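[agent] plan:
  1. take the single chain provided in the ticket
  2. run structure prediction with default settings
  3. attach structure tokens to the ticket
  4. add a short note for the reviewer (M.T.)
[agent] executing step 1
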Amino acid sequence: MKLKSFKHSLCQSLVVAALTLLGGVSMTAQAQQAKPAAANGKTELLWLGQAGFRIQSPGGKTIVIDPWITGGPKAPAVFKTDLSALGKVDLLLVTHAHVDHLGDAPTLAKLNNTLLYGPADMVTPLITLGVLPANLGHRFNKTGSVKPLPGIKVTAVQAEHSSLIVFNNPATGKPESHPAGEAMGYIIEMENGFKIWHMGDTGLFGDMKFIFDRYKPDLVLIPIGGNFTMDPEDAAYAMKTWIPAKMVMPIHYNSNPLAKGTLAEFEEAMKGSKSQIVPMTEGQTLAF
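[agent] step 2 finished; step 3 output follows
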């Protein structure tokens, strides 16, 4: 998909409107119940807040990643009160075990009888602690790839971050902390070859260049909130130095007061980049 460049100082509404007129990206302003994207042959992303997305593939499959919904302050109300409103989830991905990423994933796995794919040392304690049934967990690690659905491929890639499960032990009534392996990002390839790099939570690392060169993602979902991840300046440095992707979507901001990075700061830091910033607000849907 080829998009004309826009000045990064444009406000979000003008950027999205202009993208829509170009025909490359379409948007619905309200969160909607699941509907296949196969009719227009595009990939649809609905931002659930923080790092959470519902992705509908060109073949009509529904992928959910990092679903912090019932506890997410910016998650669309329709889903906060009824997880089934997401529709049938065909593929469930989690980048690491922190609550704003693991979120409702175990509940969605059981609700949809769908495998939860995630870091091996996160999935194992979820099973041994009884949070996730053994038959609903799939373990894989960085540079490992899976083909969970016809035409869809997911490759686990590096992320610089931590991972911890906080488990409320029903026997003691007290919370417990359990190691949960290493955080990951994902390259998600659709049936038509369109590739998304969901970075999960990460700081800067030089192999971002290797990941881009090896997998050549079309759209990068990059955290900009700071404190726990890259801030806007570091995220822009990564894009301008190592990741010349066609499009970049900032995520993991606007939901936690400790993660203070803003879209405006990212746009300012991205001046001079050839990558098109594609901003979203929680509950919006864009089609690529």
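[agent] step 4 note for reviewer: The longest strand covers residues 152-158.
[agent] ticket updated
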